[in-house]
Amino acid sequence: MTLSIDRRLLIKAGAFGLAALSTPGAAQILTARGFTHGIASGEPSAHSVLLWTRYVGSGETKLHCEVSLDESFSRIAGGGDVVASPEHDNCAKLVVTGLEPGKWYFYRFVAPDGTKSEVGRTRTLPVGEVSRFGIGLFSCSNMPFGWFNAYAHAAERGDLDLMVHVGDYFYEYRPGHYPETVMPGRMIEPDHDIVTLADYRMRFACYRLDPDLRRLHQQFPMIAQWDDHEFANDDWQNGAENHDPAMQGPWSARRAAAMRAYCEWMPVSDDLYNSFQIGTLATIFRPETRVTGRSEQLSLGNALKDQTDIAKALAAFRDGPWMASERTLMGARQEDWLYKGLAASAKAGTRWQVLAQEIVMGNLRAPAALADLTPADAPASARQQAQVLAAASKMGLPFNMDSWDGYPAARERLLRASREAGCNLVVLSGDSHNAWGNQLSLGSEPVGVEFAGQSVTSSGYETFLPTIAPRNLAALLRETNPGLTFTDTSRRGYVSLQLTPEAVQGTWHFMSTIAARTTVGTRDHTLGVKWGERRFTKA
User: Fold this and answer.
1) Where in the numbering of this chain does the Phospholipase D N-terminal domain appear (predicted)?
2) Do domains 33-124 and 134-269+353-358+424-539 have the same CATH topology?
3) 419 by DSSP, 3-state: which?
4) How far apart are CA 358 and CA 285, in angstroms?
5) pTM of the predicted structure, to 2 decimals
6) Is the domain covering 33-124 a CATH 1.20.1600.10 domain?
7) How many other CB atoms are there within 10 angstroms of residue 177's CB atom?
């Protein structure tokens, strides 16, 4: 791999220790030895949890893991040995079994020379009746945009039990591409779009030095799923928007490299999709909607290319390719797994069926007035795009073909399966960088609700429509989309959810800034859904 390494940083690291480096850079990553990136835990069950660390030695190193009921490690409850190997970028993962349900545990790793990792905290999932359970929801954390204040805010809370990350954990772009200007102190490595296994590993290593992300992993177990940017923008089964086979090689090779690095660096198993049971309170389903079964995204631009009758072309597109039943996000096998799982969860008497997945599910069309609201001095391409989106909206077409909106037949199959099973469906989403509270319906019948989270740092519609006041844009979007209960298109943060047998309450937490490392001034907006109603009621 090609790295831009400042020799002065190497000297500084050697003279003063790695802690002297204030930003995650290549020098810090390449010279670090021992426990380099803290610890993490994930994919808990009632009796087990997956534990992660990274240890750089002279070669393969056997580590001993200790799990304790207390932070002083006087009440050891489990553990085991695991090897940190250069073959896996020195990452080590161990599933510890035989634990008690619904308990907080402390854990650490010990090297052969006696040095110890940081102490982590994790918990197992409860069994039986559960009166309350808290979840944090995150997506779209682009380091060059700013500070991960959302992670910092959530890491210090006492009412959350599990973190869910639904993707874009990092971005594949070179510095200066998205965003064009890197926030001071937020530089990333390597200095080019990541393509190879070494590239993806380096990007992970860079992000995982962030103190707030590190703290979040230290304090809570996580259920995680990739989205597109852990691979390349707008990817699908056989390619991606940000992949050029002529310059970057076969997509299959890049996808395999990204997938391997993700499984090495994240506290996840090798299961592409899975479910997690929280007693009788909820089943969390974690599907994979991005790279293994997804049909290629459609494009309004391609549908209108060389067409003179725009309305006729849009109608043909709407009634043909857009509605095609064979288009899928998950593939037939995974759809079957999910539908059967939803039915089994509801039949067993589980109160809530929670779908934690990558992309927005609610139906969202652009305001018809969008073209009129686009500034006259905007680039011609932007004005043209606004006109196309406004025309598409009038024909009942959505503005984002990369979300569930681009796969309406697949969405209908899922919602129908949920309705027929009698589920109380709560969908958790990310990807769009903006906050959405969507009613999910089949015709006029409510099926469930969606809490779609805003990004941790990545820019939202305030960047693309800077002349429209966010409050006015939100009002226009709600007027256009009857199922849209709440939206915010300008602020960054995360979502937290409190689940009880009678209701789910979700709160969007909006950070006051990402330009400085602070959680002061956070603002909230809350919606709730009562069991059996399958529609939002203001909490």
Assistant:
1) 37-124
2) no
3) helix
4) 12
5) 0.94
6) no
7) 14
